[in-house]
Amino acid sequence: MIALDAFDMRLLAILQRDAGLTNQEIGARIALSASQVSRRRARLESEGIIRRVRAELSRDALGLQVTAFVGVTLNAHSRANSRRFRDLVNGMASVQEAHALTGEMDYLIKITVSDLKTLALVINDDLLAHDSVQNVHSSIVLETIREDNHLPIEAG
Q1: Distance of alpha carbon 64 from alpha carbon 51, whole angstroms
Q2: 3-state secondary structure string, 119-132?
Q3: How far apart are CA 61 and CA 71, in angstroms?
Q4: CA distances from 141 to 29, 61, 74, 132 (A)
Q5: What does the pLDDT look like over 83-125, one tens digit per residue?
Q6: What is the 3-state secondary structure (H, E, C) of 33-62?
Q7: C-alpha distances in Å from residue 95, one per residue of 26, 27, 143
Q8: In degrees rounded to 5, what are phi and psi of residue 88?
Q9: Does the pTM exceed 0.90?
Q10: What does the pLDDT look like over 26-71, one tens digit per residue?
Q11: Closest by CA position to 27, among listed 43, 44, 39, 45
């Protein structure tokens, strides 16, 4: 694990909430100069702690009205079959998250699409039609209560 000091932790906490802040604005909040913030930020990026910076888009504003969690069971538990499924999922624009699991399901994927008809097409034509998949179970999100994806870090 990479050694992080209190300034690093505060910097990460701030960036996690608002990555659009300038180094000057961050520096004012954590008592560092903009150049010190810039150097720390670059180091945190090069060490892989900051994986990427991106804009958070509004699903509603983009007409993406349906989010579903889809549990997938593979028809065979082999490395090749798993690779085929992973390749499928990595090529699907509607997939926001995909996780390999223990237990009854092999994978849990989060899908966001414009409507129920599109969700049905994704499930029937992409997932169920794929030769690696045995079955799927879907749950449609009625309301999102929290979705900030912030990691539980202590800002020190």
Answers
A1: 26
A2: HHHHHHHHHCCCCC
A3: 27
A4: 37, 17, 23, 26
A5: 999 999 999 999 999 999 999 999 999 999 999 999 999 999 9
A6: CHHHHHHHHHHHHHCCCCCCCCCCCCCCCC
A7: 33, 36, 18
A8: -60, -55
A9: no
A10: 999 999 999 999 999 999 999 999 999 888 899 999 999 999 999 9
A11: 39
